[in-house]
Amino acid sequence: MAGIENITQLSNLLNASGVSIDKHTNEWFMRVKKGSTDYLPFLTTEYYLQTALQADDAGCRAILKQIIPDIREFDTAECELKDPLGEEKFSPFPRFVHRYEDRALILVTDRCAMYCRHCFRRSFSGGINGPLSDAELTPMAGYLAEHREINEVLLTGGDPLTLSNERLFKIIARIKSVRPELVVRVCSRMPVVNPDRISRALADGLGSYEGIWFVTHFNHAAELTEYSRAAVRRLLAAGIPVLNQSVLLKGVNDDLSSLKELFQKLLRFGVKPYYLFQGDLARGTSHLRVPLRRALELTSKLKYEISGMAMPRFAVDLPGGGGKITLPSQSHPVDDEGEFYIIKGLDNEEYRYPAN
Ligand code: SF4
Questions:
Q1: Which ligand 1 atom is the nearest neighbour of the CA of 118?
Q2: pLDDT over 90 (residue 284)
Q3: Mind listing the domains of the chain with CATH numbers?
Q4: I need a surface site. Which of 70, 120, 156, 204 has the fewest CB within 10 A?
Q5: Which class for 66: exposed (0-12), middle (13-18), buried (19 or more C-beta within 10 A)?
Q6: How many CB atoms lie within 10 A of CB 313?
């Protein structure tokens, strides 16, 4: 897989297609060059960049927005957090999160094939941890053996498919050795950014285990190429159901027609649109976040435009560990100033979420 990891490679490819880098991006690279730390690295695949450059104007903008860094990532809005989902307090040990009673997640690596500029786990992704070791996996297997209330394990990160097939299968085998009945969700953006990674060997290997589900992350219809379709078909042919989680992003998919086209096309590809997430309150992402008020307006209109099968659940992850809450309508209470929605978390506590 060819990776693009610096501004020279990026500008050369963009310039060849008549696209230039704007000042926000130049400033990001300059800031990093001067020695800034604590940022999400830049990396993308040539395939994904070329998908952008071959798309129509709207598709190209939507994909480039997810690829190209911006100096505003160094700004932290008042409501933004390093750990926006409050996962740390639900981690019995590093890289393992048990937030919901019946499921747990394992951060199997911090590597990705590309670093999405909206990533909510940006303080972990692209960091210094690398792939999960056997020594780290052992207590996790023990925990899963003991906690029989856990029914599903999510393998995430980072992108689990940056691991070799051999390593990934070894992790699944270890989990299944203590709890064969556990459902395992493999969460990966590879069908979007490097569909060839979904080889027949990978799909068949995953399909040899019972209860494997694949969850991917398409945000715009222009990402659904013939290569992506072939990748999805390999998974489906191996008996692995494929779900999609999208994030609502400013300038990417924050209009009715983009969302409608995305979800209808996913269905045609055999992928069930599962969730549409409000952008999390992760540091440095406010320039990409759609205000929740507008998100609720959009999603309440969308449900009249597409079938129930095409319509994902719209959900917000409440900051500080309030949990993932599905928002069914526009009628949420706001505070006296109308600036924050008051939303009840899974713990029955009230959480404030910026409306605008
Ligand atoms: S692939 Fe997933 S974990 Fe990696 S940067 Fe994108 S959203 Fe974050």
A1: 7
A2: yes
A3: 3-74 (no CATH), 87-325 (3.20.20.70)
A4: 204
A5: buried
A6: 15
